[in-house]
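#random but structural
TW: two for the price of one
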Amino acid sequence: MKPRDEFEKSVARLSRRHFLRRAGAGAAGAAVAFRLDLLLGPPVEAAPLTSGQPAFPGAFGRLFPTLPPFAPATDAVHAALMDMGQPGGLLDAQDDLTQPPAALITDPALSVNNPDNMTHTAGTHFMGQFMDHDMTFDATSPLGQPTDPTTTRNSRTAAFDLDSVYGLGPIGSPQLYDPNDRVKLRVGFGGIFEDLPRQTDLDGSSDPTALISDPRNDETLILAGLQAAFLKFHNHAVDYVRSQGRGDPVRVFLEARLLTTWHYQWLIVHEFLPLFVGQAMVDDILENGPRFFTPHMGRAFIPVEFQTGSYRFGHSMVRPSYRANLHGDNGEPFFGFIFDPSQHPEDASQPPLTDPNDLSGGARAPRRFVGWQTFYDFGDGEVKPNKIIDTSFSSPLFTLPLRTIPPHTGPVSLAQRNLLRHITWSLPSGQAVARHMGITPLSPDNFSDLTGYGLGFESSTPLLYYVLREAALTQTTQPTLVPSPPPAPTTTRGGLRLGPVGGRIVGEVILGLLTADHTSYLAARPAWKPVLPTRNGSTGTFHMVDFLTFAGVDPASRGQ
């Protein structure tokens, strides 16, 4: 019997209404001892059409529907936003890209306008980006043209359910799965270590197109490596479930998927969200409930004030360059700019280089793998930091390769694209949101750099710019996660996390998506704790380094 036939026959034996009996002894069984149809999902009814609510399931919505736009959609406003976000403009950190990529990491004098955040490791941003691609994808709204978000479809599910990894499952998305073991995900090879599966793996062609549910997860080498880590994590979870005595392929797949998803959600709640908004904000929302984002069970949506106005804070955390690995480049470290326009054809229809010198995705070569000790702390002193959260973006982000932009059209400045989306969604100003929340807004003096436009932006500021400036002005003390001479247990300064407005929006939406999803551990079993093995043998907790170790992509497994 072919593996796929066995899987499909098992699907036919089980219906959506079956219950998963107590799966017997073993941690995997304890983790998923409730309805088997959790991951199949209940029917979704349309939400009542009220102001700000999606017009149909799967559309975007508004968090503050009564607040007016920060500015009218005039040519003058459009031109001002383009000026703010242009190369060399207000948001450009002015990194010296004539210097080698390694120098921008090791020489602090080259980062005066783009300081490091020693309380975030370099991988914090990439996990945040992976989370974004798991819950939201606007593939249709026109950039800089007013559009109703409540009638605009979100191409991802508004949940942290890893649909960006699993697609429609082994039957609906067979190209994502191992043809020899249909409950496992397909992993690509061809370099020194694993890669995303690519078209070349199917037909032997030179086509490097990744076979993944969301093509954005091949935008950079690091993000592609993180997606590959999730593929391997699930496959090892399959082995773990089988070791507990499970045999039916559907049960094996669903238990492995649930284990993978719940450990991912645990990392969001216990590791990454506190880095974004602060532990106090997380605790307040969990203990006292949300104040502004309260979706009903099964009716969660992505508010555009979150999607564009707040969560894109992560773009300010990106470094201009990274060390991708320690020994991949002919035994030497592989350093590269996150993007380098000289490494990409101007015509997006032209094939990319097979091994560019930057850290863009879409290519397979021996050196193109991730040494995760650069991005997360394995205790070997090799981890590097993020950039602080402020109104400066690293300079490579102002000349994105066209192929990394889903419609393959300009502008190529990420800052310009972010700002123009404020017109697309008619977003309110940061000051208006602050007042609505009962928070004293920042004074116009804090936005004196915007007065030259003569449009009142200093008093009615684009929401994302407000959130970034608010973070930069919010002095906090946080544990230092990146070793630095001399060792410092804590760092105190602005820009270490989001401020009260940005933090409240991001915290409430992320936790709201989890609690409104009947398949999440927060909704289905809030007292659940991780059950998979950790690096040090502890139980009941789980960190990103444990995730990478279980996936088998950690430095020890690599021998690097």
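TW: number two ↓
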Amino acid sequence: MGSGDAGADAEAAVVGVAPDAVGGGGFTLVQPTRKAMAASSVASLRGGRNFTAGIVGNMRTARVRLAALAFSFGVLALPLAAPAPVAAIGPLPDCRLDDIMTVPRDYDSWSTTLVDWLLRVPKSYVPPDLVPVSEAGIAGPGLIRAVAIEDLGAMTAAAAANGTPIAVNSPYRSYAEQVASFNGWVGVDGYEDAITYSQRPGHSEHQLGLTIDFMTLGGGSALQGDWSTDPSGAWMAANAWKYGWLMSYPLADNGALFSEATCFHYEPWHYRYVGREIARKIHRSGLTIREYLWRHHTMVDPETGEPIATPTPTPSPAPSPSPTPTLAATPSPVTSTPVATPSAAASPPPSGGEGGIDPLVLGIGGVALVLLATIAIVVRRGSPAPS
């Protein structure tokens, strides 16, 4: 993140935030409506054998012992079960307003950074790689992060080739620009209506530099009517995910305009870039961006606002290339901590055998088992059968 992160929690309250009606500095829950479109009601929140004496009996006893030993080796050789995948916070929080700093929010976590009614980035959040959208060969003004340019260009070309060309209406917005936009809508429809279709400053995906309000090339504003019924809008709804772009605010499952999964009003023109891999996973899951990121990537407690500690992964064994001690830096979004690799003389590198058992030991044990079994068979064939 940028240098302004350190003091982000001490920022002044966002403009236009309504205090809780009962006091305590919280935020009011609202009944979502929108004057520009038809209001939709909000759905309610979701016996063994004796052995003969002598050599044969001794060999059979040895065979039993060897079998037990072999079983023990087999158990030890089994790889340990991999730890269960770690989920993020898990349950989707109810729709409520707050100003919790989202985690993760470093610039490299662009595909998994979530902003919504609860979560925000600081006003100092300005992506370092903003470039003109025109670099993707798409018409329209403004900037977008460079990480999205290649796929934006591919999607633009594919839409044009299909005869459903697209253009940019509104891409990246700074914190200050979102202040102006939000306050403008508050002036038009009032605060409780505006928050259902315009995010408060710091909570907008546009500030991430990864979001575009699209429109049809040469057409009118996509904000009027249902753009998904326009040929270009319909093509985007069906194909944008293939290029790493997803509609952030689809209709609710019951067709309502306000969705409790997104805590936002339906916006068929509003698409966010998360990259092809994440977009494919979200598309296949049937979840919205907000649902998927809360379930798999967002690491903050929605009640306390405290970051959730991520488990420290166990390093994979790796042979040291040299007996000379070296320092290996562990990459981190914030700092890099040197980690000393002990020399081969002081502490030999972990073996490559399964379960930590030296392959040489396993090999010798296996040969011994084969030899002893062979001796047992030979002795048995040369002895009289038991009665």
